[in-house]
Sequence to fold (576 residues):
Amino acid sequence: MPESGEQGFRKQLDKCPTGIRGLDEITNGGLPRGRPTLVCGGAGCGKTLMAMEFLVRGAVDFGEPGVFMSFEEGTEELTQNMASLGFDLKDLQEKQKIALDFVYIERSEIEETGEYDLEGLFIRLANAINSVGAQRVVLDTIEALFAGLPNELILRSELRRLLRWLKDRGLTAIVTGEKGEGSLTRHGIEEYVSDAVIVLDHRIMNQAATRRLRFVKYRGSLHGADEYPFLIDEDGIVVMPITSLGLDYSVSSRRVSTGIAALDDMLTGGYYEGSSVLVSGTAGSGKTSLSAYFADATCRRGERCLYLAFEESQAQIIRNIRSIGLDLEPWTEKGLLQFHASRPTLYGLEMHLATTLKMTEQFKPATVIMDPITNLSLVAKNEEVKSVLMRLVDFFKNRQVTTLFTNLSHPGEVELTISGVSSLMDTWILLLNVECNGDRRRIFHILKSRGMAHSHQMREFTITGQGINLEDIQLDPAAS
Amino acid sequence: MTEEKKWQLRLYVAGMTPKCLAAFENLQQICEEHLQGEYTIEIVDLLENPQLAQGDQILAIPTLVRKLPPPLKKIIGDLSNEERVLVGLDLRPQAA
Fold:
């Protein structure tokens, strides 16, 4: 019976937090409380995992015990599979936080001799729910009943009764279904679920496996769009919001040193804390050197720096930087500097995003370097790279992390970056190699730096065994 | 020491609903007709023993299980269709 008034309205939109990273943000709180949500998709799409994670996190993070009724996998199999994700089902069962029940149906065993109902199923479910005081239930996948039981009319009628039964008891449930042809699920069970339907998808894009989650139905409001990429890492599912999470982060007026005194002067003090810096340059122009100095400056302050390298290994970078008089090794030994080197082609873009977010949350760096971001175009279209970078920049700004991105440019096109990534950046530094009288010289130029009266002067940038120098450009009177 | 009967049948019910009562009556009738006293019927009420539903993998109510002689056989429904019951339990009528 719908309640009138504000109390009733709010009650209808009560959410059940899933604890699944990213999902509660997108749904403004979680799944509809006290209602069944249908999660469907093809084999291997992650529906069993999502359902299990909903249950496990419910028990562990929110103190809501749950029942997992499996119609396909046996409890031993389930326990083993989930163990690799850090879900200790054995322990949870012992602690009476989770009850597992495997419903075995063998079609050949069943001879129909007259009227019947599925009260046995109800009794089992009730028993399991009572045994742990469950507030969450998973039925995975109830469509298996269609293969086992001969009378579809009875089955459908009982299914409807079951979902009503769950609602009457205020249980929040996830019901999984297999992907169907022409309908969302093989047996059309979506018609019994009216509050939320999620479709999981798993396809290959740009030679990388991409998983997508789509809300076909959702009672209430979603945070943004209805489709989101997600991935499965060693702790479970991570859903990533496509759109940036809002531009409402606080800004600092504190400056952080670039590591190069002359550059700090040009920037009237250094980079703004929590700002984003882009360093563009052709190959060998000194981008990594600039990054290394920034890392060094961070560690000198006793703060942590996370260096994400997409081209060179940690050993290479450290060795190369040593040749210009800077030794980063002590910082890595002290645990202030952490390298993470990986080829962009190692995994898809979402995985890069997720690992970066995770490393940041674990290591808590004050500064993050991504060198170079250009390589990310190898695994995704430019628009996608920009989208990922936008999310990253927002993520870091929200945490007041100062970021430095390097961008490999082609000679003659130095101001061209991946589809306008420069607009995401607060400071943009250009490193140019120019030919001058048969000499190759480096020019340093600050194209922009928001919020400060930076120097617009182009200076000569030299790298020697003693480090980096920024000097006024010495023009040869004979130069043209 | 109880006499070991050849046929041991177990009927799972959930309270004495019309379907369950019908199943019991039908079962008694079929057993009298075809098993000539060589049987025991055990009634398991899952409302009183809910944990047995999981242990014995019972989904439908009523469910009749032939425990002896082996192999185990399971049939569902109120047993109103005698032919199906005989086939399901592999109960052959006495040879004429």
